[in-house]
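Audit log entry. Action: structure prediction of a protein-small molecule complex. Ligand: zinc ion. The ligand was supplied as SMILES and no pocket hint was given, so placement is left entirely to the predictor. Protonation state taken as written. Sequence taken verbatim from the request; no trimming, no tag removal. Recorded inputs:
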Amino acid sequence: MTQLNFCPDCGGALLQFHVVAGEPRNHRYCESCHTRHYDHPRIVVTAFIAYQKKLLWVQRDLQPQRDLWAIPGGFLENNETLAEGAARELREESGVDIPAQQLQLYMTGTITFINQVYVAFRGSVTRPDFIPGVESQACGFFSRDECPWDAVAYPQVNDSIIQAYDDLDRGRFEVWQAEMTENRYQLQCVSTRR
Ligand SMILES: [Zn+2]
């Protein structure tokens, strides 16, 4: 977690973890002004966009992981729905404009070692058009074999991306839930449809 040394509200020293029902939580509590300073995982929204058997990738032009490639996505903003955030990130990074209502829920995941929750949507386009945004150097629709696998920004989610290529190849999309911890990666199908 981010280390808070002083209370942002009153300037008091934040030395204590908040204790709830006798157990210390992973956030601080200011004993001077009795304020809880929550520190929760961030939500990342991403968009898997297919053109035929290819997926849309963007080459990042900002840190972290500048010059490396990723599936379009970013942090959810306040006052957005998950799909709206995914559609916005997609539009900003690639110029691909798909209304939020046309994105389908595809994957959820927790990555405990970086304190992130990600929610991935999927969609498709009928033409492989894009306009790299201000935070992107380039974009491209890549088949599994064309992917810049040696230059991906977040290799910890490679298995999820490979699953997306598998689903594209089969032409059938399940809904997936991933759990990633320091020593475990599990991707589980949670669709009820069979
Ligand atoms: Zn305080």
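Audit: result stored. The chain has a mean pLDDT of 93. The chain has two domains: 1-39, 42-189.
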